[in-house]
Amino acid sequence: MRYHSIRRAASAAALLLAAGVLAGISQPAANAAATPTTVSVNARAGLAAMPATGLGINDAIWDQELGTNAVADLLKSAGVTMRRYPGGSYADIYHWADHTAPGGYVAPNTDFDRFMAGVRRTGAQPMIIANYGTGTAAEAAGWVRQANVVKKYGVKYWTVGNENYGNGHYGSAWEADNHPDKSPRQYATEVVAYADAMKAVDPTIKVGAVLTIPAGWPDAIVAEGDAGSWNQVVLSIAGPKIDFVDVHWYPGGGSAAEAMGKTAHLTDALYIVRQQIAKYAGANSGRIGISLTETNVGVGPNTQPGAIFLADTYATLLANGVFTVQWWNVHNGIGNVSTVAGQTDYGDFGILSSGTCTSDGTTCEPALNTPFAPYHALSLMNSFARPGDQFVRAATGDPLVTAHAVRRSNGDVNVLLLNRDPDNARDVTIDYAGFAPATGAVTVHTYTNGAAGIATALAGTATSQTLPPYSLTVVRARDSRVVTGPPSAPGQPTASGVTDRTATISWPAARAGAHPIAKYEVYRQFGAVSEQLGETPGTSFTVGNLRPGSRYTVNVLARDTAGNVSWASPPLTLTTGTPAQSTCTVKWTYTTDWSSGYVASVDITNTGDRAHPSWTLTYEWPTTWQQMNGGWNATWTETGRTVKVTSLDGSGPLAAGGGTVNVGFVGGYSGPNVTPTAFTLNGTLCTTLTP
Predict the structure, then answer these.
(1) pTM (2 decimals)?
(2) Region 359-379: what's the mean pLDDT?
(3) Which Pfam families does this UniProt record tie to the protein (predicted)?
(4) Domains along the chain?
């Protein structure tokens, strides 16, 4: 994407190993807000487990430091567990067999074997991008053979292409693509051929296809001649053959505050991607994973905004079940130089300095391989969450303080706290549910604005901390209780029989510990609060009194006869429907979409036996970043997230027994565009029809 500019690193200078996880770095004094911020951590509200491939990074063949031991060791110190090769859009011009990229620059000592040596030294897993743009399925299969049969590297993850929707089919063209047909249909058909050829060599590998991120261009656009959007077409054709989908996210933003705030979009973006997979990818689509292999922030990329953005983005995505998140990239080179919160930002999208200078020589970066702020954020993430830890819900009431939490394998809880206020400290009070922290001072890891590394010290308690301005903090809370032989967590719940008001939740049984299992408790996540929906001695429970057209995330916990409670099960997210029978129906259709706005057509039908002389249709936007920008055939009003559509004077009644009116409007969105699902006509909940 736009960050894929080629930067040739300067000659090797002094290497700074970032064993820079330093102790005892002083923190700047600052006034805290008068009222402490309350942070809620709920260990009963389980999210995804931290995967072994979670902390990822991009390598590029134009980076002459790619294969060095110094870089491998720096990445190992930061806890990197996955490295991607051969580098963004270069993947679609790169030929592995002769290590060439026609039209691009290939640095010395960056071939596949050198990359794999660095991966092994780091202790990471590789992710390889097979050349779709100028390559073939046979070439990709040959790479699999070389990697896993000849060299026995055991490369598991392979993606077909990089950002192949950027091939000119939708107008903009930055991704190489030699195929005469540049449509999503052609890409998907080739993905099937690639997957078949590659898995014929090694059936154990996982093959991924490229999708667009919701609300990121060209998401939702349907080009002339296509049967649907890029994601719809690719999933419909290639879904049965792939093991994961790959998306990128560059949210942009006019200021550091705006850019950092866009991490709030990620949960809904993933929700939409999973909806698309379930709808279009065919049977057993639940097996398809999600990787996010490129992200960066548009403002302050190598200073504190970049660090805070990285930690928040990684934690949010991993908590929502993405199996790897990968920063763009290791080295990138100097860009537009500015001052951000008192620090020099070189406009460099790498986590390590390239040691380069501006074209006029007036400003130079620090010595080659000096860690930038996002590097320290990645290191802090490694202190916060390790493979196997379970993310749990955490929330705050302060818009400038963000919280994440994990339950460690030993039962302890780590809390990640991000203070996005560049000027003021925050006193925080941490409340826990389902966990009783030990008293006394706790180990705290902190990265502050402009610091050379992470400070580690005993400070505050598990329930009370002061967050420096513009800082990242990990609080390590020890469990005060010693529980012998608790039951294991129940397995992954599933939902069946989902209606507008009910759903049946089922789960694999937990294993008993020192005592027999007495019952299972089913909880709904309500922010960082758990609301118990019911309990049962069995492994299935039907939940009632649900709200139509609403999204629910639930967990199941096991309780034994001694009162010991298990960890939370993995989460289950379901969305209730609308009544199967009602006196009205609503059909919502997108007629055109341009990735930030759309035109929608809405058919309102009166299926009852009474005419409506006048009528009002009401619905709620699912998010705060959606809006109505004017409509027709009715009077449209919007108050907050509530939209009312009222019949025009003199338009006549909505007839009984099938009378229909069509209305339309222009909508806008600055984040994932989640479609409303529940509509009321004159106060009656309608049946929503799927187009």
Answers:
(1) 0.94
(2) 97
(3) CBM_2 (PF00553), fn3 (PF00041)
(4) 37-42+392-477 (2.60.40.1180), 52-385 (3.20.20.80), 494-575 (2.60.40.10), 584-689 (2.60.40.290)
